[in-house]
Specification:
single chain, mainly alpha, Glycolipid transfer protein, GLTP, 65% helix, globular
């Protein structure tokens, strides 16, 4: 088995022509949830559960009306006017969670001396804190402090689970940078989409 990033769908491979492909985006998002397993921190289970729950909400909508949900944009547009808009809300929170994770990892990539705890804490302040109540802020604060050292995290990212040769750090950095850049582009696009269409009202 290859190092982790080569075993999951890359955001760089998600089709965005004419809209963000719903199933491909959800598959890549599930890969990001799995990446959080490498942090090996029990408090991060809360973050993962939140991401998984929102992925499930979007997927349920796709399965219910797939013809009207092939892209994230069409999924949101076709749910507008409905009373609950469960998938629209789920996707909004998923995007916030992805933005938080992407921002933290981009900080770590930009500064090779920065530890994960500092990067995740800064990204939380920038991307998620404003949406959380006192209790949730406390949970996330504990999770950030429990991040492993970057050297241990990257050792896990390079490792082959079947004992094969590990990835070269330079190759991993190039792959991770490409993965994060594509994720950031999709998240920014969808957040702009929500803002222009006022789809996030009430959430």
């Amino acid at each position: 088995m290859a190092p982790y990033l080569r075993t999951v769908k890359s955001f760089a491979d998600v089709n965005t022509e004419g809209g963000v492909d719903t199933l491909q985006f959800l598959e890549a998002s599930e890969g990001l949830v799995g990446l959080l397993d490498l942090l090996g921190s029990a408090p991060f289970a809360v973050v993962q559960a939140d991401l998984k729950g929102n992925i499930t909400k979007v997927k349920a909508r796709y399965n219910a009306v797939s013809e009207k949900s092939k892209t994230l944009e069409s999924l949101v547009e076709n749910e507008k006017g409905e009373k609950k808009r469960t998938a629209t809300e789920g996707l909004l929170w998923l995007l916030r969670g992805l933005s938080f994770t992407c921002g933290a990892l981009q900080k770590v990539q930009a500064d090779k001396k920065q530890e994960l705890a500092a990067a995740f804490s800064k990204s939380y302040e920038e991307n998620l804190k404003q949406f959380h109540n006192f209790v949730v802020k406390g949970i996330f604060s504990v999770a950030m402090k429990a991040c492993p050292y970057r050297v241990d995290f990257f050792a896990k990212l390079r490792a082959d689970k079947d004992g094969g040769p590990e990835a070269i750090q330079e190759d991993l950095d190039a792959e991770l940078d490409k993965w994060l850049a594509a994720l950031n582009t999709i998240v920014q696009h969808m957040q702009d989409f929500y803002e222009k269409g006022e789809y996030g009202k009430g959430f």
